[in-house]
Design brief:
- By secondary structure, the chain is mainly α.
- The chain has helices at residues 2-19, 39-62, 73-91, 101-135, 169-206, 218-227; strands spanning 139-143, 146-150, 160-164.
- It contains six helices and three strands, in the order H-H-H-H-E-E-E-H-H.
- The chain has a three-stranded antiparallel β-sheet with strand order 1-2-3, with helices on one face.
- The protein is elongated.
- It comes from Tricholaema leucomelas.
């Protein structure tokens, strides 16, 4: 009789241990190294924004008459600001369903600024592509300290472009032919990163897309439901 009671008590303990959640490392958060939201996007945005800004200022130094649309440092600065907001989000403690006002505000600002940066980068790509296509049809001559370029030399009414503070048209066109494709590539990558960031924020908010959030085993939830 004593042996059967011991066997019955062991079976009861085994059932209880199966129903209860396991304590220890299973309750700890499982995060992908370097993939915690929005760390990866913030680093990419900072790197691309810095590159776009630096290249934009370099292009502005080629000629003082280049308009702001052809030196898109403004797009790079906006992407850098978005990355800084992403780093601020990392400092805010996570609460499910945005229970804190600070977390909701930071996430909303990050989403809006990412959308604005996406539009700015797309505009920068369009302006750079338009200028690059025009340069392939330019005929340039150097006059004093400026470079005069025309789309059609036979047409007297054809539009002309004047680049100030330039002593050699050949060096100007070669540098712009290098800088403009780089601007297109960098701004295109920045636009894709900002688009991905907007998608992940929307998915995280409305379709429960968690990145780097704590996960509990299925047995733990079943055990808690049985207790209730």
């Amino acid at each position: 009789a004593g042996g059967t009671q011991r066997v019955a008590m062991k079976k009861q303990k085994q059932k209880q241990s199966k129903g209860e959640p396991k304590a220890g490392p299973e309750k700890e958060s499982h995060t992908c190294c370097g993939c915690r939201f929005p760390l990866l996007f913030a680093f990419l945005q900072l790197a691309l924004g810095t590159s776009v800004t630096a290249l934009g200022f370099l292009m502005a130094g080629v000629s003082s008459s280049l308009p702001a649309r052809d030196t898109p440092y403004w797009a790079g600065i906006l992407v850098c600001v978005v990355s800084l907001v992403g780093f601020v989000m990392l400092c805010v403690s996570y609460q499910p369903d945005e229970k804190t006002c600070l977390q909701f505000t930071a996430k909303l600002m990050y989403f809006i600024l990412s959308a604005l940066a996406l539009v700015a980068c797309v505009l920068a790509v369009a302006f750079a592509a338009h200028h690059y296509v025009q340069m392939s049809r330019f005929t340039c001559i150097t006059i004093l300290d400026s470079c005069h370029c025309k789309l059609d030399t036979e047409d007297p009414l054809s539009r002309s472009f004047i680049y100030q503070d330039v002593t050699d048209c050949g060096s100007l066109t070669s540098m712009l032919n290098l800088y403009l494709p780089l601007q297109m590539g960098l701004n295109l990558m920045a636009a894709l990163v900002c688009l991905s960031a907007c998608f992940v924020v929307w998915k995280h908010r409305y379709q429960v897309f968690y990145v780097g959030v704590r996960f509990y085993p299925l047995t733990a939830t079943k055990g808690q439901q049985q207790k209730v």
